[in-house]
Amino acid sequence: MPHLPRFSIVTPSYNQAAFIGETIESVISQAGEFEIEYFVMDGGSSDGSIEVIKKYADLVSAEKWPIQCRGISIKWCSQKDKGQSDAINQGLRQATGDIVSYINSDDLYCPGAFERIAKEFSDRPEADFIYGDGDVIDEVGNLQWEWLSRPYNHSLMTSYHFLWNDFTNYIMQQATFWRKSVINKIGYFDESFHYAMDVEYWVRAGDAGLKLIHRPYKVGKFRLIKGTKSLSSPTVFWEDYLEIFRRYRGSQSLSIFFAYYYYNLAKEVDFDIQLTLEEGNRVFRQWKLLPDREKKIIEQQASRGGDLACLLLANELYKKQLNDLASATFKKGLSKRPLSVMHIYSVSYILKKILGIRISRLLDDNITQNLIDWYKWKRFQYRYHQRKL
């Protein structure tokens, strides 16, 4: 008799009564020749979530749910946890299945997802991870856009170009599954991460030489809700991203990452450079236990990144016709490193000043931006382009 695969799925949840029922149904309605072991880890909700979870758990245990696979078990608890990563790990530590994943309490699996994933793992014994595509939906389930994942590329996932992929990253978490044996090789999710724990896990797997295979069909749905942590700030993921870049690129490579971190922070605080640097200091909290030598390197890289950010911001401010502030910001970027006048960001600003606002805007809009857009489409977003052809 062929082996019957078992899925171990974890849902971390906190005060998601409005959505968790639909999430649970997307798991326990999966049909195919497999078993499902489902862990719902509630963080002590007070909005009625517990009643929703219990309702579905009782339906399954009483055999009143129309099961379409070879068996389903639901285990759940409601207690305070240390955050999303901790809740996921609590579930994964109980897992006994062959294939594992997690789905957040407002996201969904597509019908037929498990059947396709089970077949992929059966057909591809070399695969450690299988991941697909999906949809981004709003609060009521309306399609916002398609999320088209890309084949894993370790050099891209560990470079600032990764952040050029706008909101979606290269691997859709809601469409990703991995063998339980992966945990024996690279461990559980890092609980020090609060936003990009999934990205760190994929990069850790790639760094360890594990095989991440993309399949071009829809597996999951990501619900984009106003007020959630994913949308709380354009820079909310940056602390985690900087740590990923430190781990997998090295502390001596961080200046360009700090430059874009400070640049994006400045845009949030109306280009107040002093406030930007003060706000940016919070990222150093996560490195307080590093050796003094490495902390010194990171501080130097941050200082260099801050200067580069000033050069970038000078260009942005000039385009907004804030000429005095642009000039002051440009000078600040050069004050400690005058040779940075040869940097492309400096050259760009100087050319804008020489050409004037009208011509420089014309060049930016019709040449520079078109080149950047072409490069992004060609290098990072090519699957969206291919879909339109």
TrEMBL record:
Domain (Glycosyltransferase 2-like): residue spans on this chain: 8-155
InterPro entries, per database record: Glyco_trans_2-like, Nucleotide-diphossugar_trans
Coiled-coil regions, chain positions: none
Recorded superkingdom: Bacteria
Name of the protein in its database record: Glycosyltransferase 2-like domain-containing protein
Organism per entry: Nostoc punctiforme NIES-2108
